[in-house]
Amino acid sequence: MSIFLSVLKIGIPLILALLNVHQFLYSRNPKYYYFYMKVFKKWRDTTWSIHSNYTVSKDLNFFKAFEQSIDELFETKNKVVNLPNKKQYNFGNFSLLVLYDLDVSNSDKVNIDINFNPLNVTYKNATARLSELRKLFLSLERKINASKTHYNMDIQFTGVTNPFYGLMIQRLGEEHVNHFECTFNLSTLITKENGASNLSTNNKLRVYKQKITINESSFDVIEDVAKNILLMR
Questions:
Q1: Is it the case that residue 159 has pLDDT exceeding 80?
Q2: Sign of CA dihedral 208, 213, 214, 215
Q3: Which of 1, 75, 79, 229 counts the most CB atoms within 10 A of its CB?
């Protein structure tokens, strides 16, 4: 009994001390916070909202090029909506709506929007979904010769608070947060923590309380950033 009490006298203060050290590092040290979230707080599910926009020549048959890209990568596709300027496709794990701008103007260019339906993605299949999207967009870009491209990806964390929200508060300070939004250069996080020094300092990331938003002209950059965020590399 005396041995047990002696162990308690030593063990309880030691546990409390370790908990205090953990809390201090968790709230004050970004590297420790990042390590802790990576090891102990992997989320199960995220929801992705993906949007792409292209400026192309009016002479281009965009829908033909897009369907060719789908057929190159996926075995089957369904065309749910089939209007001259609006078509909805289902293929693989994706469902999306393509909007073709028919506004008549003096310009020889038109804008096309592709809006994906919200996509539920798990920690395990995130890499596969990103790879499929990159291959699809790369194939399409090769066919359409767009004068402008733009990609947007929202990563919504379901069931848990965005783990990077707390990290950004620590790294940048509360004075940089306005209405739960923080905009910063990707190099602030990626280069220092993950060694991805090949990313441009102009690349931006927006962190909200429950989601992360990435905007880029290249989906390759979005894939790299999303991998670092989702897999915490």
A1: no
A2: negative
A3: 229
